[in-house]
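Long-time lurker, first post. I've been practising inverse folding by hand and with some scripts of my own, and I keep getting stuck on stretches where the structure tokens seem ambiguous. Below is the full token string for one chain I'm working on. Before anyone asks, I'm not after the true native sequence, just a reasonable design that respects the backbone. If someone could post their per-position residues I'd love to compare against what I wrote down in my notebook.
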């Protein structure tokens, strides 16, 4: 069983959605999201707004040398700015969306002096319009920043504002492809968020996800909450519990939050099982 500190460390220190910038072309296959970001449920659980944006500017950022590569081989990041248009969905209690947002997107890999574009998810170009799933996330070295919840949570749209089907295949993108703005708004409004995430709508999305991890790990790893015979709160393995009513199997171990150290015993009728 994985220790909780390791789980939370992965959640809290993930650098966002990204990929190895050393390879050119489509880097979508190796994207690792900081927050759940694949489905409509993920979006309404952790994002703040779904809105149309029009990209108005782009900037090259400072060159990043790749470790272990010859000098001059690396990556040139790119940042885009976009005007915010119509908002189709907003999370209850979400921070207000500004009129303009900026975020990092695919830049260029540099190899022996040759530059090749790298796309993270969906190509984002100046002058084009997109439907974006936006979230305000905390940053380690600055104030919270607006950005798409994932590189693939930016959908190219046609003149009628209907998302096109091109780009990475995810359940969320597939659900919105070909739908009108009104239909998209209805779909999002009718999607229920994760019930645990819903209880933590008042905290930032990373803290919200931490809370979901904390409350979900026992069931995911075959544990349920219990209060031991001596009153210690902890967890018991579902495999240790009797499958049917009958004579008590005797005391079984109650573990701490790591699932590895016994802190009490549990006897049906003495301890309390929390389902």
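-- Answer (accepted) --
I ran through it position by position. Result:
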């Amino acid at each position: 069983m994985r220790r909780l500190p390791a789980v939370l460390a992965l959640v809290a220190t993930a650098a966002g959605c990204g990929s190895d910038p050393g390879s050119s072309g489509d880097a979508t296959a190796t994207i690792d999201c900081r927050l759940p970001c694949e489905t409509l449920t993920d979006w309404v659980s952790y994002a703040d707004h779904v809105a149309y944006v029009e990209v108005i500017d782009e900037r090259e950022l400072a060159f990043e040398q790749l470790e272990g590569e010859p000098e001059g081989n690396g990556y040139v990041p790119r940042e885009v700015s976009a005007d915010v248009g119509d908002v189709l969905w907003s999370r209850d209690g979400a921070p207000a969306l500004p009129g303009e947002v900026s975020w990092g997107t695919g830049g260029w890999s540099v190899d022996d002096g040759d530059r090749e574009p790298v796309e993270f998810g969906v190509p984002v170009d100046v002058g084009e319009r997109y439907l974006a799933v936006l979230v305000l996330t905390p940053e380690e070295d600055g104030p919270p920043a607006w950005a798409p919840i994932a590189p693939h949570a930016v959908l190219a749209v046609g003149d009628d504002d209907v998302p096109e089907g091109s780009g990475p295949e995810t359940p969320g993108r597939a659900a919105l492809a070909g739908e009108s703005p009104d239909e998209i708004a209805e779909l999002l409004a009718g999607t229920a968020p994760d019930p645990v995430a819903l209880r933590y709508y008042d905290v930032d999305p990373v803290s919200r996800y931490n809370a979901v991890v904390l409350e979900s790990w026992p069931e995911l790893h075959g544990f349920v909450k219990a209060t031991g015979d001596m009153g210690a709160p902890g967890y018991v393995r579902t495999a240790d519990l009797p499958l049917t009513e009958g004579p008590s199997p005797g005391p079984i171990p109650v573990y701490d939050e790591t699932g590895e150290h016994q802190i009490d015993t549990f006897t049906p009728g003495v301890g309390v099982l929390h389902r």
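A couple of notes from the structure itself: Residues 1-31 have pLDDT under 50 and may be disordered. The chain has two domains: 22-194, 222-274. Happy to go over any region you disagree with.
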